[in-house]
Amino acid sequence: MTKDQHIAYWKTEAERNWETALYLKNGKQNVMALFMLHLTIEKLFKAHWVKDNIDNFPPRTHDLQFLHNQADLDIPAEDYDYLAVVNQWSIDTRYPDLQEQNLLDCHGYLCNRTGSSN
After folding, report:
1. Distance between CA atoms of 75 and 41, rounded to whole angstroms?
2. Residue 2 φ/ψ region, left for φ over 0, alpha for ψ in the -120 to 50 degree band, beta for the rest
3. Which end of the chain is more exposed for a tag (fewer CB within 10 A), N or C?
4. What does the pLDDT look like over 59-118, one tens digit per residue?
């Protein structure tokens, strides 16, 4: 695969995950929507990583701040700081005792980003 094909792959996967996140959010499956939101951001960052690096294979990590730092991206400091929260969602959504607090913590953020009030 060429570099452009690798980038297209990550962007296509991110788009699929975004559509899934919205579908899950609209169906009030908020925990899984959070997980898919993390995957969306991760895959977009991996597309940028491929674009900004010689290699076509991004690191096998789910750490959004790490991926951001490895790519030539400029996002507002507030959003960069929030990547740590989104990282935590991807872990906490796997554990039922942590899911409820994540839903409370992220409700406003996710709703603001998706234009939803569910």
Report:
1. 13
2. beta
3. N
4. 999 999 999 999 989 999 999 998 998 898 888 878 767 666 666 565 555 555 545 544
How many other CB atoms are there within 10 angstroms of residue 115's CB atom? 7
Q: Which fold has domain 3-114?
A: Four Helix Bundle (Hemerythrin (Met), subunit A) (1.20.120)
Task: Pull the structure tokens for residue 45.
Answer: 């960052």
**DSSP character string of 54-95:** SSSS--S---HHHHHHHTT----HHHHHHHHHHHHHHHHTTS
**What per-residue confidence (pLDDT) applies to 107?**
54
Distance CA 55, CA 31 (A): 34
- Where residue 49 falls among pLDDT bands split at 50, 70, 90? very high
pLDDT at 43: 98
- CA 28 to CA 118: how far, in whole Å? 7
Half-sphere exposure of 118 (CA within 13 A, CB side): 13
Reported pTM:
0.83
